[in-house]
């Protein structure tokens, strides 16, 4: 088995899940399950900005890899896509080259999703405005959803 390629695969999936904003236990569990599917004993430790994976190689020294996430946000679509990829790998146990191709396909697909969320939020703003205005009649409270949206978007696009 090519342990280097396996390590690259699980670190790519784990970092993808983590950078999408998933909980650390979900990141760890996903990586552990994929490695277990290939019959590899592992130790995985995840914190919000790093992922450390150690695999036990029979007859050799353990292999450890650190994946540090520079930028992180919330992209639940990416979390779902990478999680589904992990489930698919566990169920089918493909050759590592095939699984790496699936990972590359997933990385290409996730890039357009933040734009979709942006336009979904734009469509919700008029309803938020009217609901807030009807609730208490104050124009300032009705403008609050729009102010929060524009502030969050400026932070997201700046990073």
Write the layout of secondary structure elements.
Elements: H1 3-19, H2 24-37, E1 41-47, E2 50-56, E3 63-68, H3 76-92, H4 96-110, H5 113-136, H6 139-158
Antiparallel strand pairs: 1-2, 2-3
Helix pairs in contact: 1-2, 1-3, 1-4, 2-3, 3-4, 5-6
CATH architectural grouping of the largest domain: 2-Layer Sandwich
Strand order of the largest sheet: 1-2-3
Strand-residue proportion: 5-15%
Number of helices: 6
Tell me the helix content. Answer: 55-70%
Order of helices and strands: HHEEEHHHH
End-to-end separation = 39 Å
Number of domains: 2
The overall average pLDDT, rounded, is: 83
CATH topology of the largest domain: Pantoate--beta-alanine Ligase, Chain: A,domain 2
Low-confidence parts: none
CATH class category label of the largest domain: Alpha Beta
What is the radius of gyration?
20 Å
Sheet having the most strands: 3 strands, antiparallel
Q: Which descriptor suits the 3D outline? A: elongated
Structural class: alpha+beta
**How many strand elements?**
3
């Amino acid at each position: 088995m090519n342990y280097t390629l396996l390590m690259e695969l699980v670190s790519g999936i784990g970092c993808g899940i983590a950078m999408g904003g998933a909980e650390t236990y979900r990141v760890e569990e996903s990586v552990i399950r994929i490695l277990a599917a290939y019959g590899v004993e592992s130790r995985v430790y995840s914190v919000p900005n790093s992922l450390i994976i150690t695999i036990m190689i029979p007859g050799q020294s353990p292999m450890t890899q650190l994946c540090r996430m520079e930028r992180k946000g919330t992209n639940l679509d990416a979390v779902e896509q990478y999680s589904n990829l992990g489930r698919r790998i566990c169920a089918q146990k493909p050759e590592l080259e095939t699984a790496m191709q699936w990972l590359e396909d997933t990385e290409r697909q996730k890039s357009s999703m933040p734009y979709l969320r942006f336009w979904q939020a734009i469509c919700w703003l008029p309803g938020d405005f009217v609901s807030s205005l009807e609730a208490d009649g104050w124009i300032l409270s009705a403008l609050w959803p729009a102010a929060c949206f524009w502030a969050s978007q400026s932070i997201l696009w700046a990073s």
